[in-house]
């Protein structure tokens, strides 16, 4: 079996470890720690709420208008930094980083913790759908013809474990006029947990200017 | 057209506005404000990162072990408080609150902001999938026979707007042995944006004890 070569330049935004990316990474720690604490925690949560509200107040007071921010976040044609799957500026995103393989497919690895739980100890089925929908979109961009999701079908083969290394893959399989067909998988320990098939339509919404 | 009556007791956890729920609500404000600020913000993000890391350090230092927390969060048989769609303890959750209707279906309303963006100004297709997967599961619980997602098919009819009131519905349509069939929709301003069909299998993973 020959090794598939991976292009380590990355198809998704690279976190800076400074500026807003560092603040977002810290926010991810807070989200996770709140779930690990729960309501039985010995921590005085009223004080935690006050501290977090003070941070939010400060940020909101200095934020640009939504219109200005939308233009800024969609500037250029490069990878997005704010989406809920790969975005270094979005604390909801794990974030997943995706790389192109020389066979035309893409892959990424991620470990999902408490915020992404569905059944006990397992990844929420809808979170797997979120990761795969986005990965199929990036696979299309990597293949050169991308669009918007028309139909997405997910098959859940076995529970996807939390706290373990998952491999997420995507591959554009064919293009027929404006129809784009794309598949993807989530595997854990070499076993397929979830597969996805997507039909995408070759169109884009205008970016705000 | 007769009005469908809604049972306002709710099928999902009710936020407390105190304790961990209040801290999580504040964390949601931080997530949102960080996206509204972006890297062009006038705010000194290094200081924000330090403040958030200090909160995370404090929470982590007082958190129970993962094993203890898992048993605690899955205690009882009631609605979960930690899932990434409806959970008052999960800052990733909008949260969506769902209610039973007297025709056997369920519904909820939600406005999604910047953290849930996919295409410019629109909800990420994978976020719609996340909301619908969970809503179909709650619809099954409301109907009395629930299980794990086997296959989920999503159809995207038109872009789902950010910043507008969305209605999310779910309905169990039939049960055939261990197979459960369930549908759902996301509508905005009376127009259908996304539809979902799910095949669920009547089984549950054991809760940690």
Automatic annotation (TrEMBL), chains A, B:
<dbReference type="InterPro" id="IPR048654">
    <property type="entry name" value="RHA1_ro05818_N"/>
</dbReference>
<feature type="domain" description="RHA1-ro05818 N-terminal helical">
    <location>
        <begin position="11"/>
        <end position="68"/>
    </location>
</feature>
<dbReference type="Pfam" id="PF03061">
    <property type="entry name" value="4HBT"/>
</dbReference>
<keyword id="KW-0276">Fatty acid metabolism</keyword>
<dbReference type="InterPro" id="IPR006683">
    <property type="entry name" value="Thioestr_dom"/>
</dbReference>
<feature type="domain" description="Thioesterase">
    <location>
        <begin position="121"/>
        <end position="192"/>
    </location>
</feature>
<keyword id="KW-1003">Cell membrane</keyword>
<keyword id="KW-0966">Cell projection</keyword>
<dbReference type="GO" id="GO:0005737">
    <property type="term" value="C:cytoplasm"/>
</dbReference>
<protein>
    <recommendedName>
        <fullName>Acyl-coenzyme A thioesterase THEM4</fullName>
        <ecNumber>3.1.2.2</ecNumber>
    </recommendedName>
</protein>
<comment type="similarity">
    <text>Belongs to the THEM4/THEM5 thioesterase family.</text>
</comment>
<dbReference type="InterPro" id="IPR029069">
    <property type="entry name" value="HotDog_dom_sf"/>
</dbReference>
<keyword id="KW-0053">Apoptosis</keyword>
<dbReference type="InterPro" id="IPR052365">
    <property type="entry name" value="THEM4/THEM5_acyl-CoA_thioest"/>
</dbReference>
<keyword id="KW-0472">Membrane</keyword>
<keyword id="KW-0443">Lipid metabolism</keyword>
<dbReference type="GO" id="GO:0006631">
    <property type="term" value="P:fatty acid metabolic process"/>
</dbReference>
<dbReference type="GO" id="GO:0016020">
    <property type="term" value="C:membrane"/>
</dbReference>
<keyword id="KW-0809">Transit peptide</keyword>
<dbReference type="GO" id="GO:0016787">
    <property type="term" value="F:hydrolase activity"/>
</dbReference>
<dbReference type="Pfam" id="PF20859">
    <property type="entry name" value="RHA1_ro05818_N"/>
</dbReference>
<keyword id="KW-0378">Hydrolase</keyword>
<keyword id="KW-0963">Cytoplasm</keyword>
């Amino acid at each position: 079996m020959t090794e598939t070569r991976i292009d380590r330049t990355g198809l998704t935004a690279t976190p800076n470890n400074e500026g807003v990316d560092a603040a977002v990474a810290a926010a991810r720690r807070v989200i996770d720690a709140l779930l690990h604490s729960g309501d039985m925690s010995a921590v005085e949560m009223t004080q935690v709420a006050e501290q977090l509200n003070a941070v939010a107040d400060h940020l909101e007071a200095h934020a640009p208008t939504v219109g200005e921010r939308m233009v800024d976040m969609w500037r250029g044609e490069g990878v997005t930094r704010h989406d809920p799957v790969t975005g270094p500026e979005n604390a909801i995103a794990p974030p997943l980083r995706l790389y192109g393989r020389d066979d035309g497919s893409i892959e990424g690895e991620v470990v999902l913790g408490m915020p992404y739980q569905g059944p006990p100890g397992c990844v929420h089925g809808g979170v797997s759908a979120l990761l795969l929908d986005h990965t199929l979109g990036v696979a299309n961009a990597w293949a050169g013809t991308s669009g918007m999701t028309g139909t997405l079908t997910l098959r859940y083969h076995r529970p996807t474990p939390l706290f373990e290394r998952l491999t997420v893959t995507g591959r554009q399989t064919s293009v027929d006029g404006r129809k784009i067909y794309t598949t993807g998988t989530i595997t854990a320990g070499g076993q397929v947990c979830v597969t996805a098939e997507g039909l995408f339509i070759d169109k884009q919404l205008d970016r705000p200017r």
